[in-house]
Amino acid sequence: MGRGKIEIKKIENVTSRQVTFSKRRSGLFKKAHELSVLCDAQVAALVFSQSGRLYEYSSSEMEKIIERYGKFSNDSFVAERPQVERYLQELKKEIDRMVKKIDLLEVHHRKLMGQGLGSCSVAELQEIDIQIEKSLRIVRSRKAELYAGQLEKLKEKERELLNERKRLREEQLRERLMRPVVPLTLQICDKGKSTEDGGRTKHSSTSDVETDLFIGLPVTRQ
């Protein structure tokens, strides 16, 4: 089985940390030696432990390698220095131009706000007037667009309400049409029956009245 992947983080255990440091340092120096031999390269490695102890490896004299490295770094810096200086000069000029533009814009803004007009000529005032009128037209146009949009939304809301009202009326009419209708002949029969029953009742009540028939002279009351 192969070894599992080790998470690269600080080893908290001091003993394990020292053991790992020793193994990894030896491995690093071994790889550096192999690189110098296989590729005929000058290799130097410096390692400081946590306690500050120095460990080093060099394929040749360490001092010569360090001296060569310092000379190479200085030569590279000297070669690149003119380019850096030109870049810094161009950047400074660009900053100066931007500052001047900002100052002009601030002065122009104050003039548009009606400030600092004492030093303006007639031509400058006319130009400011034209710019203000142009800005006002743009603002008014935008305001008109917003008003038109709001008006269209209100009209759409009104159409929705009218459609809802129409739908409710249709539902009410449909409910009325769905109600059962009593035939007219049945109503007439019911009415006649009620009338006949009423006549019979009246006749019966009339026939129930008792009458006595008396023949002779009327009785004189004292």
UniProtKB/TrEMBL annotation:
Task: Identify one Pfam family in the record.
Answer: K-box
What does the record give as the organism's lineage? Answer: Eukaryota, Viridiplantae, Streptophyta, Embryophyta, Tracheophyta
Please list the coiled coil stretches: 81-108, 144-174
Every MADS-box domain range: 1-61
Keywords from UniProt, A to Z, are:
Coiled coil, DNA-binding, Nucleus, Transcription, Transcription regulation
Q: Which InterPro entries match?
A: MADS-box/MEF2_TF (IPR050142), MEF2-like_N (IPR033896), TF_Kbox (IPR002487), TF_MADSbox (IPR002100), TF_MADSbox_sf (IPR036879)
Q: Identify the PANTHER family for this entry.
A: SERUM RESPONSE FACTOR HOMOLOG
- Return the protein name: MADS-box protein AGL71-like isoform X2
Per the annotation, which location comes first and is thus the protein's main one? nucleus
The listed locations are:
Nucleus
The UniProt record lists the K-box domain at 88-179
